[in-house]
Amino acid sequence: MKDIKIREVPEEVVIKLDKLKGSMSRNEFLKHELSEIAKRNEVLEIETKYNELLNMTLKVIEKNTEVLNKLISFDENMEVSEDAESKEY
């Protein structure tokens, strides 16, 4: 592992970090937060891909619904037509 040193951190920032860290050591807390920052971009990329996939899926579902509604309408029209033809005979 590599070491990271940060100099000249304002005292009020250190106080706020100490409040946020809870029972963790400052070092462990900062390692955890830096790891989260490093993962953030990857998570955002995955979220973007997920949203794109979700939108594509919704479009497919909408198109399928449209086609099914046309088939149902066609089937209903066929039944009406068949009923009319059977009454003529």
Structure description:
It is rod-shaped and about 95 Å long. The longest helix has 63 residues, at 26-88. The mean pLDDT is 92. The chain is mainly alpha-helical. The protein has helices spanning 11-20, 26-88.
Q: What layout of secondary structure does this protein have?
A:
Elements lengths: L10 H10 L5 H63 L1
Let me know the largest β-sheet.
Answer: none
Give the total of beta strands: 0
Rg, Cα atoms, Å: 31 Å
Q: How large is the count of helical segments? A: 2
Residue share in helix: over 70%
Short précis:
The chain is an all-alpha fold. The protein contains two helices and no strands.
Keywords:
2 helices, mainly alpha, 89 residues
